From TrEMBL:
SUPFAM superfamilies: OsmC-like. This is Peroxiredoxin. Signal peptide: none annotated. It comes from the Bacteria.
Length: 159
């Protein structure tokens, strides 16, 4: 595991100028393109509640996805180290954001990973490793709201 400082460079380019810029709240589009190096571009917008395009990723989607992906990556690493073979992992994560007088904020993210492990592997240890993954997750350690994890561990059928 590399230690030290890691920098991430991302370009977000607004593509929603409909000809008059931000001359009025409904006069401009919320669309943007997210780029990082040679990676595939991510089409972005705002949440449809804020006049965004529902077919594009919004910042809130990306935050929930980041928390879910970071947890998953740590979890897979920890299971590998513990000799637990994860065969499948699907997380139906959900973030809750509330609007307030000073703006909105996330109140929580709930991760709901459904994990299938190899027949005979330690399901109790596999469940515990979700707690360790949460403690190590960079995203979870960086936000000011709770990220809860409600894992389901299933074992593959013995062959």
């Amino acid at each position: 595991m590399a230690h030290g400082e890691h920098k991430y460079h991302v370009t977000v380019e607004w593509t929603g100028n409909r000809g008059t810029g931000t001359s009025g709240y409904r006069a401009y589009g919320r669309d943007h393109t997210i780029r990082a190096g040679d990676k595939p571009e991510i089409p972005g917008s705002s949440d449809p509640a804020f006049l965004g395009d529902a077919t594009r990723w919004n910042p809130e989607d990306l935050l929930v996805a980041s928390a879910s992906a970071c947890h998953k990556l740590w979890y897979l690493h920890l299971c590998s180290d513990a000799g637990i073979a994860v065969l499948a992992y699907v997380d139906q994560a959900e973030g809750t954001m509330t609007d307030g007088p000073a703006g909105g904020q996330f109140s929580e993210i709930v991760l709901r990973p459904h994990v299938t492990i190899r027949a005979g592997d330690d399901a109790e240890r596999a469940a515990h490793l979700h707690h360790v993954a949460h403690e190590k997750c960079y995203v979870a350690n960086s936000v000011n709201f709770p990220i809860r994890c409600e894992p389901v561990i299933a074992q593959a059928a013995a062959s």
